[in-house]
Amino acid sequence: MHVTHIRRTMAAAAAAAVLPVAIGIAAPTASADTGTQPFGPGCSSLPQEGKGSLSDMASTPVATAAANNPELKTLAAAVEAADLGDTLNNTKGITVFAPTNAAFEKIPKADLDALLANKAQLAKVLKYHVVGQEVTQKDLAKGDFTTLEGSKLTTSGSGESFTVNDSAKIVCGGIPTANATVELIDTVLMPK
Predict the structure, then answer these.
(1) Rg (alpha carbons) of the chain, rounded to whole number
(2) How many domains, in total, are found in the chain?
(3) CA 20 to 30 Å from 173, out of 16, 32, 181, 183?
(4) Distance CA 51, CA 167 (A)
(5) Is residue 7 part of a domain?
């Protein structure tokens, strides 16, 4: 009788896992490494399917994922201008604090144009947005990380509300890509 109960329990668990897929309901994408799901109010602005969607980003290296995502077109252009695409796509286990298009729009046009035209300075700013380790949602609560640029970056918060360097809000975090985790932020960070 005990074996029958275990078999029924296992069958019920298998059915619960298969049923949503069988009826066409996709489960939220979770990061295989962290077991966490993307979080934050800005996640709803991402495409639901196709290029730039969470499932597309999960199977694509980070620079390519950014280029495919409509919320990250300015960042993708900056990465291309700084010749950092291959570096980002080929480095594993990193976290990218990715400024959205709206974040870049906060910078006065003349200043942004000057930054985009200065390849060395642009590379420095972009590398400041990359941490050479996987940062989990738990790590964000009180984080202190060294960036690829060499300076420190801090995070704080709880639940689904996190701030980077006491200035940028994470609008959609914990997005897995093929080689990185992406945290969409609402402000471009500047190294000191």
Answers:
(1) 19
(2) 1
(3) 16
(4) 30
(5) no
List, for residues 43-93, the tens digit of each pLDDT value: 999 999 999 999 999 999 999 999 999 999 999 999 999 999 999 999 999
Q: Letter for the amino acid at 63?
A: A
Reduced 3-state DSSP string for the chain: CHHHHHHHHHHHHHHHHHHHHHCCCCCCCCCCCCCCCCECHHHHHCCCCCCCCHHHHHCCCHHHHHHHCHHHHHHHHHHHHCCCHHHHHHCCCEEEEEECHHHHHCCCHHHHHHHHHCHHHHHHHHHCCEECCCCCHHHHCEEEEEECCCCEEEEEEECCEEEECCCEEEEEEEEECCCEEEEEECCCCCCC
Q: How far apart are CA 183 and CA 190, in angstroms?
A: 16
Q: Is pLDDT above 60 for 184?
A: yes
- CATH number, position 81: 2.30.180.10
72 contacts 101 by C-beta, under 8 angstroms: yes
Q: 47: domain range? A: 28-185
Strand order across the 168-176 sheet: 130-131, 94-99, 180-185, 168-176, 161-164, 152-158, 142-146
Query: Does residue 17 lie in a domain region?
Result: no
